[in-house]
Design a protein that fits this description.
alpha+beta, Aminopeptidase, 2 domains, seven-stranded mixed beta sheet, 7 helices, 10 strands, about 35% helix, GNAT_dom, YpeA/RimI_acetyltransf, transferase, Acyl_CoA_acyltransferase, N-acetyltransferase domain-containing protein
């Protein structure tokens, strides 16, 4: 399974499939369309995935500067820095335009996938997802070390997920060890917000919870797992690759000079 390198129509179709699944699995509070640019904004959470312009057609290159201006005004109204999320669907024309404007490039991430057909899950824990969103969010904030002020926004996003979302937490008594969200969407199982509590890392908790979630998703008809991970997160990349995940394509973010 080779990484995406060129951009033929067949490759772009694969990318579009995962991009669409990502939008459904992690929905922004407000979505606007400017041609095939999807402008996603979320007042309650600062995450870049939820606050970015996502171009979805390399051929949509008309009036770029004018459309950037319109997007900038929307971002300004939300108090967010103008951010483009650049996948293979963004195309070279837009990339060169941003290069000429001196836009910064940062936070490259990988989209990875794993066929579930041959994955050995017999020994994985049979775990029922949490029904209590508040309890899960509390555990997730602790494992990820995130600020409690993000609770309302995270609750809003999780509550808006349209496909079936499994909220998984591995706990020792009342102490959360690892958490993740598994979104079952047709034949796809997307893993989001995967985190292990700092003092409990390198003990296999994340691996065990991922396998439990994938077992749950496969029983519901999922045939392929997928996830997004920052290229600089070497421990997570090592874990995912050891499970058999392979890179499909990459994306990164861009902001104008001084943003």
């Amino acid at each position: 399974m080779a990484p995406v390198s060129g951009h033929p129509a067949s490759v772009l179709a694969v990318v579009r499939r995962y991009e669409a699944a990502g939008f459904r699995a992690w929905p922004a509070a407000a979505v606007h369309y400017d041609g095939t640019w999807v402008v996603r904004l979320t007042a309650g959470l600062p995450a870049k995935r939820l606050n970015s312009v996502n171009p979805l057609d390399p051929g949509d290159t008309h009036a770029i500067e004018e459309r950037i201006g319109r997007a900038a005004r929307r971002f300004d109204a939300y108090g967010r820095p103008l951010t483009f999320r650049m996948s293979p669907l963004s195309g070279q024309v837009l990339s060169r335009h941003l290069d000429k404007g001196g836009w910064n490039r940062f936070d490259e991430s990988l989209v990875m996938r794993l066929p579930l057909k041959d994955l050995e899950l017999g020994a994985a824990m049979d775990q029922i997802p949490l029904k209590d969103i508040s309890r899960f969010i509390g555990a997730s904030l602790r494992t990820s070390g995130s600020d409690a002020s993000l609770r309302p926004g995270l609750s809003e996003v999780i509550g808006a997920i349209q496909p079936e979302a499994g909220l998984f937490a591995l706990e020792d008594g009342n102490e959360p060890l690892a958490t993740l969200i598994c979104v079952h969407d047709g034949d796809l199982a997307g893993l989001f917000e995967v985190a292990t509590e700092k003092s409990a890392r390198k003990q296999g908790h994340g691996r065990n919870l991922i396998l439990s979630a994938l077992k749950w998703a496969r029983l519901r008809g999922a045939r392929e797992a997928w996830l997004q991970v920052e290229a600089g997160n070497l421990p997570a990349l090592s874990l995912y690759r050891s499970l058999g995940f392979e890179e499909v394509y990459r994306y990164h973010y861009r902001r104008p000079p001084g943003a």
